Amino acid sequence: MNRARRRKDFFRTAGTWASAGLSVLVLISVFVFVFSRGISTFSFDMLTDNYWATNYLLDIENGEANDFVPPAATDEEKYFSRKFGFSLVDDIDKENNRLMVVESMSALSPLHEGIIATAGSDQGKTHPVPLGARVRRIDYTNINGEARSAGILGQDSSAAKTIERLEIEAVSINGLFYQTTGGGIRGSIISTLMLIGLTLLFALPLGVSSAIYLHEIAPRNRLTSWIRAAVEMLAGVPSIIFGLMGVSMLFRITSLFGINTQSILLGSMTMTIMLLPLIMRQTEEALIVVPASLRMASLSLGASTTQTIFRVILPNALPGILSATLLSISRIIGESAALIFTMGTAISDNPKISQGATSLAVHIWTVMAGEQPNFELATAISLLILVMVLILNLTVKLLTYRINRKWQV
Amino acid sequence: MKIFRSLIIIILVLSLFVGLAACGENESEETYAPTDAPAETTVALEETDPTAESGLQGEIHVYSRDASSGTRGAFEELADFEEQLTDNAILTESNGDMAAKVGADLLAIGYVSLTTDFAANNIKAVNYEGVEPTEENVLNESYTLARPFNYVTRAAGDFGDADKEALVAAFIAFLTESVEGANAISSAGGIVDVSSKRAWADLQADHPVVSQDNSGIEIVTVGSTSVEKAIRAALETFQPMAGNFNFKMSHAGSGEGPAGTVGEEKDTAKKGDIGFASRAFKDTEEVILGMSTGTFCLDAVVICAESSNPIANLNQSQTAAIFKGEIQNWEDLD
Predict the structure, then answer these.
(1) Which secondary structure element, helix H or strand E, spans residue B275, and what is its range?
(2) B130 touches chain A (CB under 8 A)
(3) Could you give the 3-state DSSP secondary structure of residue B149?
(4) CATH code, residues B59-146+300-332
(5) What is the CATH number assigned to the segment(s) B148-299?
(6) Cβ of A16 under 8 Å from any chain B Cβ?
(7) What is the pLDDT of residues A67-91, one digit of tens each?
(8) Which among A18, A37, A344 has CB closest to B15?
(9) A162 and A211 together in one domain
(10) pTM for the complete prediction?
């Protein structure tokens, strides 16, 4: 090897090394970024909590002022009401709103005797105020017998002011309005699962059958290759165009079923059309891998074409179809543009097929689009999505490895 | 050959370090700093005439919001320079983003909502026409950079359900007439005169629908994203007072408010029961068709600058000239 040759080779190799290094670096930095930002917010509670807070309006009977002894270790930040036996602390939520939270309650505090005041099936049931409740308003009666309110909705900006006001003015407390924490993604997880289920229900039979037709049954002529080319082209259409098509055309179909709003059904129908090329392509790949000798053996034993397809070829192509399914699932999890149009951006805690909801990816869009973007929650959801997609992709790799080993390719 | 391989490894390690440094920067707030801000400001400061000691010198960095922002629309309309924003303006993504960027740039001028935490963002409020931006001055109409938050409901009989219609009417009464509603709005930053309101206990009698189980009813709100926080606070407060009805907030911009309730989108996927706009309704928006329409609170737009900037007051013509790019340097402002 001469010098010039060596130098040339060196630069070529170095180019590939550098490119590979850069790609790995970018991937690692994405993971590091999402992990470092999201892991602090990520918790089991986040997965199971509702996004919207539950609001409780309680009547409090026997709320007369008493003389409670503050717990031994009260530090500066906690404000204890001697009259009513509970303490509040200040807090700030992820959207930068001021909160006050119930930190402790004496055993005989009137807060244990809340009664649900909201009209409905639970009205009149006892409902003690839980620790950690976000108190919005405390209704009390002052010395002149007038009804007054304390708390954030009584224009007190802090726990200190609220407690001070109660200690000075209140003769008895009559009611309390508090919220649960909220901010969870349970609803979006459920709607993502519903979306995946419905989409696969529509897309798999359609996609697999068309792939079988194209590969096994259709005559090998110009028309078939045109159809195949059209399917390939469909795969290159940007998802936002599918979204537009969904909201303008498929919306009319869902309207026939009486669904006059953006809905999970509409989202899944749009996703079905988006995923068809992927499923058809992957299934065809799986059919190609099935050795021709199997087909011939089956046909020579007297089986019809249909029997051969459904009894011999399809079972052998199953791992390939499964990996197409898994790839589709990761596409559904990652899709946002088409779903913003077809499923809407309103987060729902109890998603229904006939109503709008957000998938996890659109949930990120919604919390970031407001006046006060919630960056922590967005990265925590990203973390969840990354982990899910990673697991799905590893499973696909495993399946592909097993098929290849089976046919000794 | 070995030498080459070790060379390659060294290059890779170096690029790794550079990359890591870059992604470290990504995670700090620095990424959000505008890259198109002129870099030669310090030079400008040195070169200009040092006689004008009190005033700030250098090029004015104009910050604005993206075109979809209702705050920007209101500000441009109130300061009378609609569609004439200078091309040099640096666009920000949200109210908080604007506050953070202006607070980090001595030569900056921008505008935020009155509810912004001025001290935490290192920004100061600039008086407009000599009037300090405070809630009192907005309510007594002396501070004129204020915009209304408006609502419009669907037309009477167009809700598809009598109970829902009654519930929407009750919510509107709660929102506009009750002390509790006013407190909820004001806790979320809306400017509203609580003293002129009545207790909900007095109003409740006119709305018997609130004392039944409404958990099967869903009220859908559409329209401006700026009102979202105030409306969410009001809906959350009203929910347990009115039989636990459900609500869905699907806000995407002021135009969608009237369109989704009384306009051409009222029977499409974008329909809603109550629509909101963070500006006055236009003549083309037929809000008169709605069962009820009006203003439920005010919001002030405040011109802001970095906290050590000596500027204290701007009038309308100065404001318009700055944002149009006609006044380009701080020393030209008098």
Answers:
(1) strand B274-277
(2) no
(3) strand
(4) 3.40.190.10
(5) 3.40.190
(6) no
(7) 888 877 656 678 888 889 888 998 8
(8) A18
(9) no
(10) 0.76
